[in-house]
């Protein structure tokens, strides 16, 4: 391990990971998912649940809230791009949204 930084995923690994995350798309060095909540408060509750999971995992998405539209963006800033931490958190967010 050495540096302790998570390893960046290669492009083929990102393609494979996104195949298992159909609601997510790549945006440069990040992956994103946008959700339309039934109401503003439902969107806030969704964010609260994701925030709790992110704290437990110690891996935090960027979250943008625009009324009922919530956008999650994942990237491992310390590694400078996408890592397995991001795809794992994306799967976790998908479970919360299910």
Automatic annotation (TrEMBL):
The record's CDD domains line, in alphabetical order, gives: PCD_DCoH
Swiss-Prot/TrEMBL keywords? Lyase
Q: Give the signal peptide range.
A: none
What would be one Pfam family of this protein?
Pterin_4a
Catalyzed chemical reaction(s) = (4aS,6R)-4a-hydroxy-L-erythro-5,6,7,8-tetrahydrobiopterin = (6R)-L-erythro-6,7-dihydrobiopterin + H2O
Does this entry carry the keyword Ribosomal protein?
no
Q: Which InterPro entries match?
A: PCD_sf, Pterin_deHydtase
**KW Nucleus (keyword) present:** no
Source species, domain of life = Bacteria
The catalytic activity of this protein is classed by the Enzyme Commission as: 4.2.1.96
Q: Name one GO molecular function term.
A: 4-alpha-hydroxytetrahydrobiopterin dehydratase activity
Tell me its family: Belongs to the pterin-4-alpha-carbinolamine dehydratase family.
Q: What is this protein called?
A: Putative pterin-4-alpha-carbinolamine dehydratase
Species name: Nocardia rhizosphaerae
Lineage in the entry? Answer: Bacteria, Bacillati, Actinomycetota, Actinomycetes, Mycobacteriales
């Amino acid at each position: 391990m050495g540096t302790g930084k998570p390893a960046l995923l290669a492009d083929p690994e990102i393609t494979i990971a996104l195949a298992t995350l159909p609601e997510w798309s790549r945006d440069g060095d990040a992956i994103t998912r946008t959700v339309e909540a039934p109401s503003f408060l439902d969107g806030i509750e969704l964010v609260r649940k994701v925030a709790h999971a992110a704290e437990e995992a110690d891996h935090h998405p960027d979250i943008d809230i625009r009324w009922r539209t919530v956008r999650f963006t994942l990237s491992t800033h310390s590694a400078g791009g996408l890592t397995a931490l991001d795809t794992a958190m994306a799967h976790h967010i998908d479970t919360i949204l299910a």
